[in-house]
Design goal:
Radius of gyration: 24 Å
Distance between the termini: 88 Å
Largest sheet: none
Helix content: over 70%
Strand content: under 5%
Structural class: mainly alpha
Number of strands: 0
Order of helices and strands: HHHHHHHHHHH
Shape: elongated
């Protein structure tokens, strides 16, 4: 009897372990389920929300990406907080929050979000990227003067970034300022001579 009980006990343990292994493998095979399983334990961790946001963006689920990046941004601490978890990535989350709003077709909301939190951004790298995106958002609204103003601030902060220079050229072209458009496009080509994106933007405005 004892031998039979032992065999049954071992069989039950093996079955239980097999079920747990299957469940674990099922979770690992599905990134969304994996991240959500982590959030069930650590829902206040901005990093996990950020990784989930990246997953949604790659799946072109932009509304879901917006929500995840928004939570990641809001959970990130402030620089003066004792527990300022996620602060170094806080404004990367803000950028991703805004750009996925644009991908979701909410350009006006993206502009408002950037303008609301812009005064909090002090790091030059983040600030250059945020001004660049803000300028591009304005270009999508055909607001070319605001576009150039924001992109000029980005270029002042980092004159090696191609995007603000390229879109400055586009905005100048839309305003009919061929001299400045040509100047900006030439700078963009110097920085990235083989970029198909640069050439595509130039072609879109007749260059």
């Amino acid at each position: 009897i004892n031998s039979t009980l032992s065999i049954v006990s071992v069989a039950l343990v093996i079955t239980a372990l097999s079920i747990l292994t299957y469940q674990r493998n099922a979770i690992w095979a599905n990134p969304e389920r994996l991240y959500k399983a982590e959030l069930a334990i650590n829902n206040n961790k901005p990093r996990i929300h950020g990784v989930l946001g990246k997953y949604y963006k790659e799946q072109k689920q932009y509304e879901e990406a917006v929500n995840s990046y928004k939570i990641a941004f809001e959970l990130s601490g402030n620089v003066r907080d004792i527990d300022n978890q996620g602060f170094l990535k806080k404004f990367s989350y803000l950028n991703n929050y805004a750009t996925n709003l644009v991908r979701a077709g909410k350009v006006d909301e993206a502009i408002l979000v950037i303008k609301q939190f812009l005064p909090e951004v002090k790091n030059k790298k983040h600030l250059a990227r945020i001004y660049s995106n803000l300028g591009i958002f304005y270009s999508l609204k055909n607001n070319y003067y605001q576009c150039i103003q924001s992109l000029s601030k980005s270029i002042e902060l980092d004159n090696k970034m191609v995007e603000p220079i390229l879109f400055s050229g586009k905005c100048y072209a839309r305003l009919g300022n061929k001299e400045m458009a040509t100047k900006m496009f030439n700078r963009a080509l110097t920085l990235s001579p083989d970029s198909s994106r640069v050439k595509a933007i130039m072609k879109s405005v007749g260059y």
